Amino acid sequence: MVMSGITRLDWGVEAGVRIELAERLVLLTVLSVGNNIYRGEPEVAVYEDASGRLLLGGDRAWLDGFVHSATPQTTAAAALNYSTASQWGFTLEGMYAGRRYVTVNPLRRTDRFLYLASSSEERQACFRQERLPDAWVLNVGVTKGFTLFGVRVFASLSVDNLLDRRDIVYGGYEQMRFDEYTAADGRNAYRPFPARYSYAYPRTFLASLTVSF
C-alpha cells in the first residue's frame, strides 16, 4: 500500500521543574503535551507484491483529524532523588502516558471499503479510532559509587514496573486484513480484523557496573 499527498499537523510543548526539597533531596517533574494528526485526505494505492500490478488506485482515505503517531499525546513523569555523602543514591520515579491511539489502517476509511460494509453501524465503526487505556508505572533505583584499587566504580540496580502491572497496553495497530462474509441482504460484505496489541514488560530488573580509569 502506498499513500501520497499526506498532510500532517504536529505540535508539542514540554515543561520541566527541578525542586530542591532538602540538601540532598531533589524532585524532578516533566510534562509533555502534543498533537499529531492527519490534515486532509491522502490518496491510497495498493499493489500486488509479486508483480507490482495496481490493485486499487485513485481512492481517498478519509483520515482528516485522525492521530497518525503511536506516541502518547500526553506524558508526565516525576522522580524523587536522594543522595548521601557516602555516594549512595536512591530514586523513586512515576511515569504516566495518556491520549494514546492504535495506528490506523487507511484502507478502512476509503470509499471503496466503506461501500462494502454491511450496515451504517459498521461504517461508523470504521471511522472510529480506538483510544488505548491511559498507563502509569512506578520505578525504583539505587546507585553506589566507590573507589577500588584506585579505580572509580559505579554500580546501579533498577526495578522498572515495580508493581508488576501486566495489563498495560504498550501499543496497537489496525490489521490490514479484512473478513469476507455474507450480509443479511445476501451480498458479500467485508469487515476489518480486530486490532492487534502489544503489552509492556512486567517487573524488570536491570543491573550495571561502570569502571572509569
Q: What is the molecular shape?
A: elongated
Tally of helical runs: 2
Instruction: Find the structural class using helix and strand composition.
Output: mainly beta
The tally of beta strands, per DSSP, is 16
Would you kindly provide a written description of the structure presented here, covering whatever features stand out?
- This protein has 213 residues and is mainly beta.
- It has one domain (2-212).
- Helices cover 6% and strands 57% of the residues.
- The protein has two helices and 16 strands.
- Strands 2-3-6-7-10-11-16 form a seven-stranded antiparallel beta sheet, with no helix packed on it. Strands 1-4-5 form a three-stranded antiparallel beta sheet, with no helix packed on it. Strands 8-9 form a two-stranded antiparallel sheet.
- Strand 13 (178-182) and strand 14 form a beta hairpin.
- The termini are far apart.
- The model has no long low-confidence stretch (mean pLDDT 93).
Structure, briefly:
Helices cover about 5% and strands about 55% of the residues. The protein is mainly beta and about 210 residues long.
Notable traits:
three-stranded antiparallel beta sheet; elongated; 6% helix; mainly beta; 2 helices; 213 residues; 57% strand
Topology:
Blueprint: E1 2-4, E2 8-22, E3 25-38, E4 43-47, E5 54-60, E6 74-83, E7 88-98, E8 100-101, H1 111-116, H2 120-126, E9 131-132, E10 135-148, E11 151-160, E12 169-173, E13 178-182, E14 188-192, E15 196-199, E16 204-212
Antiparallel strand pairs: 1-4, 2-3, 3-6, 4-5, 6-7, 7-10, 8-9, 10-11, 11-16, 12-15, 13-14
